[in-house]
Amino acid sequence: MKVGTDGVLLGAWAAVRPQDRRMLDIGTGTGLIALMLAQRAPEAHVTGVDIDDVGQARENAAASPWSGRVAFAQCPVQEFETPEPFDLIVSNPPFFVDSLTCPDRGRTAARHAVHLPFGDLRDAVLRLLAPGGRFAVILPTAEAERFLAVCAGRLALVRRTDVRTTPRRPAKRALMEFVRADRPADRSTDCSAAAPEVSELVVGTGEHECYTPEYRALTRDFYLKF
């Protein structure tokens, strides 16, 4: 799986706070999102982890200006260990649950929740996320509702953006940001007890290769054509 709109959306949308110094990209693939985070956070160290070979991600990082702050590990996230928790975790995970798998095993691993069921992803985030950290994920809308059900009582949704490809089409993707449901209350900064912030993003105008101003504004730092 190469560069896709889902990864670009997540890498650009995930909230990067000034205090975030350690970041994790689960299911890093080619390292796209990890490199986007490194570009956005000049003082952060970013780790990408993937069950498949991370050689291409390492090559991409080596060819980038951020190679000194990005590292990759080939390891199932269920087994991934770290000496310190992460301030920000992101994931563009495999998501198909009940659909037929593809004969191509690599494509199946990238698109179907076979090796990373939603419950395992939730548990990995809870194990690796710092007490005040955030977790951002992108999923198709139907799978987003499944993931919300899996996270109930464990991870609290604080922000969601539903993504339409064009104004006339229904939302196809959901960008979601979570905090720990059990994080200590801080009335000055905590929003986990409040209703989540909900918004919508339309990618294209409906004409070929024409993008909305909102999508251009979100992603222009990562597209040469913008």
CATH fold name: Rossmann fold
Helix content percent band:
25-40%
What is the string of SSEs from the N terminus onward? HEHEHEEHHEHEEEH
Report strand %: 25-35%
Cα radius of gyration in angstroms: 17 Å
The termini sit apart by: 23 Å
CATH H-level superfamily: Vaccinia Virus protein VP39
Number of strands: 8
The CATH architecture: 3-Layer(aba) Sandwich
Approximate shape: globular
Quickly give the structural class. Answer: alpha/beta
Which consecutive residue ranges, at least 5 long each, have pLDDT under 50?
Answer: 107-113, 185-189
**What is the CATH level 1 assignment?**
Alpha Beta
Main beta sheet: strand number and arrangement? 8 strands, mixed
Subcellular location: Cytoplasm
Protein name: tRNA1(Val) (adenine(37)-N6)-methyltransferase
Organism: Alistipes shahii WAL 8301
GO biological process, one term: methylation
